[in-house]
Amino acid sequence: MNQLSKEFLINVLTRMCPTASKLLGKINVGGSCCNPVAAALLLSLCLGFPRSVATCPPYCLCTSDIISCSGRNLSVLPFDLPGYATRLDLSHNALTVLPVDWISRPFDRLATLVLSRNSISQIEANAFAVMPHLLHLDLSSNQLTVLNSSIFTGLKELKELLLFGNQITQINPGAFSDLHSLQRLYLSGNKLMAFPLGLYWEPGSPRNLTFLDLSYNKLSVVPVQNLLSLTQQDGIYLQENPLVCDCALLALLEYWMWKQYRPLVDFRDEYPCRDDSGPGSECSQQVVLDMPLEAQTYQVEPGKWLRVPCPGFASPAQGGLVVFWVTPKTVVNSSTNDPDDHIIVFPNGTLEIRSAVMEDSGMYGCVTARRRHYDPSESLEVSIVVGNLSSTSTSGLAHRSGAEHFNTAFTTLASCVVSIILVLLYLYLTPCRCRESRGGGTRGCGGRAIILCSDPREVESGQRRSNGKRVAFLEPQTEDSDIGVPKTPAMNLGHVTTEGILKNGSRTVGQALIDPAHVA
User: How far apart are CA 348 and CA 345, in angstroms?
Assistant: First the structure.
């Protein structure tokens, strides 16, 4: 190998492998040139192990597909992080800003990213776009104050986002617009003063959000009407917020308690409006009847109007008392009525449905501050049926009954047909149909004929009879034997019945029957 080729090989190795120059400096021939064999071996190693998987930073721990650089006081990330990781732990460091290029290469396999307990105060848009398959993102215990729009762009598969323990005071519209798969969001321990309704109503917001932790924030007022429509969600935690205990909040908490809503039941003592606190006379129980609340059903014809009183509500609302009705489609209240609405609520709590349609059928719940504990058997809901009550309520039952009657009739008919076929087979398809001869014997009963084929008169009179139906097989006999010669049975037929079913289906007249008790 000439000098020019050696220098070229050295340059290639140096460019491809950052550590090649160090190794080549120790391998020389005659003190001036590298060993061609060693250089070729080093080149093959560089080609066989890409830089993304070949090295692990000395201050990180790389095991299998997990990379941990936790607790290293890093203010910037190392450039040579391997890209094969499914879990990357960068917690307990000194990161302050996450720009677009804060990470050196795409992490296509990354599923979990831990950035907790840093000093991150700013995240630029598209900062996480290089890890599109991320499922779990932990940004807890940082110094975030504002969540700008598009900071989570590209995280369409993210399911869990931890943001608790920050200083978040504001969530701008579109901050969660790309988190279509988000299921659990932790915002506890921040400084939010407004409920983030954009999580549920903004275009592109999470479709499957079932857990929202807003505890230990600065919320004083919550949108009660919106929260009533979100009660079917698995968990919205609001404990340890300075909530103002007005009549609307009291109504919400009472309704949640009646529904056994888990976030309230588990942290009941950490909510306001307990027995020893709450609003004053504007939520007095004088407006509520002190009587059990029973489930009721109301019926209205399509196109007609229907008025339904609020269960247990006795007099018109006073002061700030608001009555909410949770309908199958929406939530309406007595304070914001539009005369043109299809469903309105009067100040006395009465619900009015105008020009009812079939889609209005369902369960309706009346929510208001009653200042009382509900018995588990009591009901705050009523059932409304649009259409004929009997036909509507029993249509499913009638349909099922008709189907059951049809199935029963069909089964009975099929059973009868099968029974008739079996009887016919029993009567006419026996192995041998005997023919009477002039001498009173049988003719045509070949070998092993069933004795049920024979006439009782063909059996010798000395043979004992029994009412029990038994079958005996005879030895084969020649069909053309002498008719006048009596046939001798090959076995004793004393235990064989002579009471067979004749071809005409009746017992032979004048035939004496012997009591089975006397049969040996």
Answer: 8
CA-closest candidate to residue 337, choices 281, 232, 348 = 348
Nearest to 471 by CA among 450, 502, 442: 450
Residue 320 located in a structural domain: yes
Burial 97-113 (b: 16+ CB within 10 A, else e): ebeeebbeeebeebbbb
Q: pTM of the prediction?
A: 0.64
Count structural domains, the chain. 4
Q: Residue 96 class from Cβ within 10 Å (0-12 exposed, 13-18 middle, 19+ buried)?
A: middle
Which residue is associated with the tokens 């609001």?
Answer: 238
Structural domain of residue 499, as residue ranges?
430-520
434 and 490 co-located in one domain: yes
pLDDT digits (tens, 9 = 90+) for 372-388: 777 767 788 899 999 87
* DSSP category for residue 270: G
pLDDT digits (tens, 9 = 90+) for 426-447: 787 765 555 544 455 544 444 4
User: Does residue 318 sit in the same domain as residue 337?
Assistant: yes
112 pairs with which residues across the strands? Answer: 87, 136
Contact indicator for 112, 140 with CB cutoff of 8 Å:
no
One domain for residues 300 and 384: yes
| 467 belongs to a structural domain | yes
